[in-house]
Structures are given as structure tokens and as C-alpha cells.
Design a protein that fits this description.
77% of the residues lie in helices and 0% in strands. The chain is mostly helical. Helix 2 packs antiparallel against helix 9, helix 6 runs antiparallel to helix 8 and helix 11 crosses helix 12. The longest helix has 40 residues. The C terminus is likely disordered.
């Protein structure tokens, strides 16, 4: 089932990605100075955040550049645009998928790393999603290999394997998003519940409870858009609907926007920074209350802090 016309899908996708790319540029221009001037990040965190922000924009820029070239090849320099768009293993089209794959790999890696930090850098917590992420990277590499070797001889994998591998890649991205976001929200909810039971939120005039609610909200807000687009792409790909190409183009920019927007909103004072203001485990005040309530192991294992005095007045 083709659904949407292929040429229409390409035009709509290029338009939507161009709009989102403009948004990405604006958010990046605000985000990078914020990262460079922040002083509360550790020496290890700042290079990670700065590099990730730059790479997300770079991959997004290269993707839209090759998407534009692909459209020009089809509609201006070809006598049969539809045949040109459907041509398998076209180098320009293959390069688009290279940067789509790199963007999704980096976006999923950022998500897993955020969960790793929230759980006190416990490797056991992110072991399963990390292994799934590795499998997804292998599948992505196989898809790109097929695209670049479609017309070469003696190839072990061919076009018949392409759809199955590509669907597997998309399903892995959806699973990682849902599972990791769920882990983070569950962890914050459990700490908030235990803090309320121990009366810590009341003693601190509910500042800790508000911080945890903001933390939950920021995780949901940052993850839901990416997850929705990834799921839509997965469904449309299963249905063989051509509109999947438009959704894929949008997803590339959505990943970068979601990551950068978290940092911008934190700096603007609209929400709390999960890594800086909610989980300051070295300053935790919960040791004694948790020992009294018999919940020390659970909260200490998550390395969360609900301090009586918040560094933020958000």
C-alpha cells in the first residue's frame, strides 16, 4: 500500500524538515552559549554535552543537504522523477540514510546516558537498553551496507533483506525510547513517593517535591516527541506508506531540537535540570530518615537527593 504519492511525500518532507531545521538552528544558537558558560557541570560532562549538541546539528545539516540534492536530481535533472526517487542504492539517497542512522544512534545514546546518570551511574540498570542499542547499530550498519552494495556482485545480503532489517532498526529505536523513558520516570516517581512518606517535602516547604515533579515533566516532554515520530515512522514503514519519508525527515531534526531545548529551558528558568539540581547525591540529606524508614537501600541505590535547600528558584 503506497498511500501518499511518493513525489508529494518527498516535497512535504523537505518542507517540514526545512522548517524544523530553522527551529533547530535557533535553539542551537541559544543552547551552545548556555553550555559554554555553565560552571556547575563537571569537567567530564561539559565536553559530552557540547560535542553532542554540535554533532546533532551537523548530522541534521548534512541530512537536509543531501535531501535537497536528491529532490533536485529527481525533479529538475531527471526525465522520470518517480523512477529516480525509487532507484535503489542511489548514492545520494544512501547518504541521507547514513545521517538518519547516525542521528538516531546518537539520540538513543544520549537517552541511555541520561538514564545512566539518573540511576547513580549504575551500569546494571542500562545494561539491557545498551545491548539493544548495540544490536540496533549493527542492524543500521547492515542496512547501509546493502544500500551501498546493491548493484555489486557477490554480495551476501540483498534487497530482500533490506525491509526486514530496516523495520528491525525502527522497532529497536521505539523500544529504547519507551523503555528508558519509563525507567527514568519510574525512578523519580519512587523517590518522590518515598520522600512524601518520610515528610521530607513538608520540611523543605515542598521545594523537593516541586523539583521532582519538574524532573518528571522534563523527561516526558523531551522524550515524547521523539518517541511519537519514531513510532509513526515504524507504523508507516510497516504499512508501506510513502509518507514515512516525510516523517523520517522530520525525525532527524526533532532529535536535535528535543535535546537542545532541555538545556535552553533550564537556563531560562522554566524547569529544573535533572543532572544538576535534582540528583545531587553527594549532598543528600536523606541518609538518616531512610535508615529510620527502612528505605535507605532503595533511594541510595538510585543516588537521588532531595535537599532541603534547592540551588534553583525555578
Amino acid at each position: 500500500m503506497a498511500g501518499t504519492r511518493l513525489d508529494l511525500s518527498v516535497f512535504v518532507g523537505l518542507f517540514m524538515e526545512s522548517v524544523l531545521y530553522g527551529v533547530h538552528l535557533i535553539v542551537f544558537d541559544t543552547c551552545l552559549p548556555v553550555l559554554l558558560r555553565r560552571t556547575r557541570m563537571t569537567a567530564a560532562e561539559k565536553p559530552y554535552l557540547v560535542t553532542s549538541t554540535i554533532l546533532l546539528l551537523l548530522f541534521g545539516t548534512l541530512h537536509i543537504a543531501f535531501a535537497l540534492r536528491h529532490a533536485l536530481d529527481a525533479f529538475l535533472w531527471s526525465s522520470n522523477p518517480t523512477e529516480r526517487l525509487l532507484r535503489a542504492a542511489d548514492p545520494i539517497d544512501a547518504l541521507q540514510w547514513v545521517f538518519f542512522g547516525l542521528q538516531t544512534m546518537l539520540g538513543d545514546a544520549i537517552l541511555i546516558y541520561r538514564c545512566y546518570v539518573i540511576y547513580g551511574r549504575r551500569k546494571s540498570v542500562i545494561a539491557a537498553p545498551f545491548l539493544v542499542w548495540i544490536c540496533g547499530n549493527v542492524n543500521t550498519a547492515l542496512v547501509l551496507y546493502i544500500l551501498f552494495t546493491m548493484h555489486s556482485g557477490n554480495r551476501p545480503l540483498g534487497e530482500s533483506h533490506l525491509q526486514a532489517l530496516f523495520t528491525s532498526c525502527l522497532s529497536i529505536t521505539v523500544v529504547i525510547n519507551v523503555f528508558v523513558n519509563g525507567l527514568m520516570v519510574m525512578a523519580i516517581w519512587r523517590v518522590q513517593r518515598d520522600a512524601a512518606d518520610l515528610g521530607i517535602a513538608e520540611r523543605s516547604q515542598s521545594s523537593s517535591a516541586r523539583a521532582l515533579r519538574r524532573a518528571t515533566r522534563i523527561i516526558i516532554e523531551s522524550g515524547v516527541i521523539y518517541t511519537i515520530f519514531a513510532f509513526l515512522f515504524f507504523v508507516l514503514n510497516i504499512a508501506s506508506n510513502n509518507f514515512k519519508f516525510a516523517i523520517a525527515a522530520c525525525t532527524v531534526q526533532i532529535i536535535g531540537i528535543a535535546f537542545d531545548l532541555i538545556i535552553v529551558r533550564v537556563d531560562a528558568g522554566q524547569t529544573s535540570d535533572i543532572l544538576e539540581e535534582v540528583y545531587q547525591s553527594k549532598n543528600t540529606n536523606l541518609t538518616s530518615p531512610m535508615a529510620y524508614a527502612g528505605r535507605r537501600g532503595r533511594l541510595n541505590s538510585l543516588s537521588f537527593a532531595i535537599t532541603s535547600q534547592s540551588e534553583s528558584t525555578v
